[in-house]
Amino acid sequence: MPRPKIGVVLAATGRLSPLGAPLEYVATGLPWPVDVELRDSGSTPEGARAAVRSLAGVGARVVVTLGGTATLPAVVDACAEREVPCVSTTLPWQVFDAGRRPGPAFHFCWGLDDIAAVFADLWERLGPARAVGCVWNDGTQGDALRRWFAPVAAARGHHLVDLPYRESSGVVPAVGDVEVVTSAATAADLAAVVRARRPRLVTCSRWLTYPFGVARHGLDRVATIVSWTPGHEHVGSGGRTPRDLARAYERATGSPWLQPLGLAHALFEVAVHAAQEADSPGAVADVLARTRLATIAGVLDWTAGPAPGVATVALAGGQWRGGPRPSLVVVDNRRAPLVPVSGDLLVD
Fold it and tell me: Which residues contact 270 (CB under 8 A, 6 or more apart)?
């Protein structure tokens, strides 16, 4: 009997390619009881849709993907058009769910409200009711933060000063007289803001969850969200631990582990579970809808999500320590107690 086939859409080329490397390693560098077909999105929505068409054509039973504000929804929608179940991650679940066409789509991630709660926990180390400069772009990212992040932070008593700007334009806003800045900017844009006026504390999601720009742009002490580390106390399929996975990835690639590595592994754990449990290709979506599975990224539960087809991931608070090879230190785990704290929050 042929093994189930799992399709993978990843960014092997283009702007998002750094995020494609962990998923490619998990798909091709680890043993799975399925056949795996990879397709490159080229980091564009058009490429993502073409990748799904190709995977549907070769009989993929389920498609997995991660990352990309524009590419991930393109994968989800293309899978819905062909009625191929899709499992995705690393895009805040409200952005994934907003305006999504119906289809066999299943997502796991944190929410923008979760980011706001973690960041507010860190801001309040400086005292209650902070004035926070919000360096948010005038596109999809910024709009989502204004809709779902801002109300949570404001409800905690913080005064948010909205500082909209056009990303990568070379012109960044002046943050004024605030002690705290929060951002979802590129590393280069955030570095320009920090150079102009060094706040006491900077919190940034999006690209600053990864080390790429920390050393290059001198962004030591930037705080961020932490979804997965080698220190997480979770166990994945076959008894693999986060530490096992991180070490194997670093040996195989010569590159440091990234947070998407654990989420990519969980994608495969979920997809393999569904493909094996379904008694027919058409039953995969039914299995996913009732899945509650312990993975290397924690327990993922689609039976109790905040929205249909959504499971959540707990977040901790972290902060970068600079140097040629920046390290991510967990500084607050009150919302993710299975993540051990490894350092103190440093402020200027």
Answer: 64, 87, 106, 108, 288, 291, 293, 295, 300
**Closest to 314 in 3D by CA, of 21, 113, 149:** 113
Q: What CATH number has the domain spanning 5-110+230-312? A: 3.40.50.2300
Report phi then psi at 102, rounded to 5.
Answer: -65, 150
Q: How is the chain split into domains, by residue range?
A: 5-110+230-312, 113-226+316-332
SS3 287: helix
Query: Do the domains 113-226+316-332 and 5-110+230-312 match in fold?
Result: yes
Q: Is 93 exposed, middle or buried (0-12, 13-18, 19+ CB in 10 A)?
A: buried
pTM of the model: 0.95
Name the strands in the sheet holding 86-89, side by side, starting at the edge strand that comes first in the sequence. Answer: 35-40, 5-10, 62-66, 86-89, 105-109, 310-312
- Region of 205 please: left (phi>0), alpha (psi -120 to 50) or beta: beta
Residue 201, exposed/middle/buried by CB under 10 A (0-12, 13-18, 19+)?
buried
CATH homologous superfamily of 113-226+316-332 equals Response regulator (3.40.50.2300)
Q: Three-state DSSP class for 9? A: strand
**DSSP-assigned beta bridge partners for residue 311:** 108
Tens digit of each residue's pLDDT (9 = 90 or more) over 261-320:
999 999 999 999 999 999 888 899 999 999 999 999 999 999 998 999 999 999 999 999
Give SS3 for 234.
coil
